[in-house]
Amino acid sequence: MKRVAIAILNWNGKNWLEKFLPSVVQHSDLANIYIIDNASTDGSVVFLKTNYPQIKIVENEQNYGFAGGYNMGLAQINAEIYCLLNSDVEVQENWISPILTLLDKQPEVAAVQPKILSYNQPEYFEFAGAAGGLIDNLGYPYCRGRVFENIEKDKGQYDDEAEIFWASGCALFIRSKDFWQQQGFDARFFAHQEEIDLCWRLINAGRKIYYTHQSVVYHVGGATLTKESPQKTYLNFRNNLSMLMKNMPFPKLIPVIFLRLCLDGLAGIYLWRKNGFNHLWAVVRAHFGFYNQAINTWKLRQTQQKRIFYQNTFIIFKHFLK
Fold it and tell me: Tell me: the pLDDT tens digits for 17-27?
């Protein structure tokens, strides 16, 4: 039995499967490949059964989103290590071996992310993960190689193995025992930042998250929800606040939440001017969505936040002031 199960979540992504699945099949001899389908209506399942009969398909009854879809699908997959891979990712030869080497060498590591470069501009990092995720003192996620919308060129500056705060869900290797000890993703998130929440819970449980440059993938990004989507804005703002309430130590939580609510208001005005009123309204809806979930979110807090691994910085102020 192979140690790794590559699980690609699909929802009406037949075009992406046609384009990128061949590279996954060609370069993934060390893994079994699964497609978790979120009740697609575009003929994805028929395409897979016709052209890739060797690939196992897990069919969900409805679209449970990224978080719920993976929870439902992975529950039916038996493997030591899961690789959660977006359907719009191109992989290279020998992309799995460095991950396994790192996991074998460091049993305290729960999850690993490869270097994620842009498929359309391969000399640049890709927005969703770049060279590993970090988080600042106010709970704003960013990456080595990407701060907000500013993306760095890959000049070898992150050619290392490094401990990070969160690993991108677009190419996430995670030990199955760690995934299920944390009860998987928070399905209420539906999509966006659920992997950051999971990594934060793992860190609070004493586990580590790592990045390695020795594995490289190329990601298109925005395959399901584009950056211009108000729904993406809604999910990002709502889920980020819920993530803070679940995982941030209590003495720090109250002032941070208060300040974030104020800064979100400013962000909403900025998005209104940049992308239209629907994005401001999405931020407002996100706050009400956060309040609506607050009691249940509080109940999901772990008994203690054992370990803090913030970057000692306020990235939003440094970024916009500079």
Answer: 999 999 999 99
Nearest to residue 198, comparing CAs of 222, 212, 178, 225? 178
Handedness of CA 36, 41, 42, 44 (dihedral sign): positive
pLDDT at 306 exceeding the cut of 80: no
**8-state DSSP, 169:** T
pTM beyond 0.90: the answer is: yes
pLDDT grade for 314, boundaries at 50, 70 and 90: confident
Q: What is the mean pLDDT of the chain?
A: 93
Total Cβ atoms within 10 A of residue 273? 11
Q: Is the dihedral of CA 208, 213, 219, 221 positive or negative?
A: positive
Length of the chain: 322
Q: Which residue, among 40, 72, 295, has the nearest Cα to 187 in the 3D structure?
A: 72
Assess contact for 66 and 194: CB atoms under 8 A: yes
Instruction: For residue 218, report the phi and psi dihedrals to the nearest 5 degrees.
Output: -125, 125
- pLDDT at residue 310, rounded to an integer: 60
If one counts every other C-beta atom within 10 angstroms of the C-beta of residue 43, the result is 11
Predicted confidence at residue 229, as pLDDT, reads 87
- What separation in angstroms does the CA of 270 have from each of 135, 140, 215, 240? 22, 16, 37, 18
211 token code pair: 């990045």
Q: Which amino acid is at 148?
A: F
Phi, psi of 165 (to 5 degrees): -95, -40
57 forms beta bridges with 35
User: Phi and psi of 272, rounded to 5°?
Assistant: -60, -50
Q: Answer whether 185's CB lies under 8 Å from 195's CB.
A: yes
The 10 Å Cβ neighbour count of residue 295 is 8
Location of structure tokens 């030990």 = 175
Q: Look-up: residue for tokens 């069919």?
A: 59
| 37 beta partners | 10, 59
